[in-house]
Amino acid sequence: MEVIFVTSNEGKYREVRAMGEKYGIEVGWIRKEYLEPQGNDLEEIARMSAELLSKDINSPFFLEDSGLFVKALNGFPGPYSSYVFKTIGNDGILKLMEGVEDRSAYFLAVVAYWDGEKVRTFTGKVEGKISREMRGDKGFGYDPIFEYEGRTFAEMGEEKNEYSHRRKAVEKLFSYISGR
Ligand code: ITT
């Protein structure tokens, strides 16, 4: 069985392709930046993005929208994670967190699957902490500053896929479409 993943982010695609193997699902890739409506609700953004994209893609597909939510920053950057990463990046988040004791943060992933008729969403969440400095050279995005049980995602490599927000959301999708 093949299903198409629409994303401009190669790091995300690689992770999701590896997750498909367990379910016998081949993950195809449309490398594309698509229109994401602005808003405060990740699930709503993902759903609307998929509805818009469905006008251009003639087969079932999914996309995945994620965000990093930092407790001491009242959930920032949240739905603006992509823009914030491109502008102030990991250095910028670490600066905002200087002197802050409560480092709690979580990643949220929303998968939006277009089955040819309608959109269905699946979510996944992982709780962790913002590290004091960047550590590790694997992964992508905020991985060097997101600590899970003492190690950053960028220090873990493949192992990240066992705990990640993306894994949880994507596995819900894969078990839905494979009936497993
Ligand atoms: P799309 O084309 O799939 O939208 P994107 O990189 O814009 O790719 P998102 O909007 O979902 O993806 O991601 C928001 C930001 O959060 C972006 O800067 C990512 O690098 C970062 N991010 C998402 N998932 C991450 C993860 O697992 N680890 C570290 N950073 C992550």
Question: Which terms would index this structure?
Answer:
globular; 180 residues; alpha/beta; 28% strand; 34% helix; binds inosine 5'-triphosphate
In brief, what are we looking at here?
Helix content is 34%, strand content 28%.
Describe the structure.
This protein is 34% helix and 28% strand. α1 crosses α7 (165-178). β1, α1 (10-21) and β2 (26-31) form a beta-alpha-beta unit. Strands 2-1-3-4-5-6-7 form a seven-stranded mixed β-sheet. With 180 residues, the chain is α/β, with parallel strands linked by helices. Inosine 5'-triphosphate binds at residues 7-9, 12, 33, 65-68, 81-82, 85, 139-143, 153, 164, 166.
The helix/strand series, from N terminus to C terminus, equals EHEHEHHEEEEHHH
Report the biggest beta sheet as strand number plus sense, adding barrel if it closes. Answer: 7 strands, mixed
End-to-end separation: 13 Å
Overall mean pLDDT stands at: 95
Shape: globular
CATH topology: Maf protein
Q: Secondary-structure blueprint of this entry?
A:
Layout: E1 2-7, H1 10-21, E2 26-31, H2 42-53, E3 61-70, H3 81-87, H4 89-96, E4 104-114, E5 119-130, E6 146-148, E7 151-152, H5 153-156, H6 160-163, H7 165-178
The structure holds inosine 5'-triphosphate.
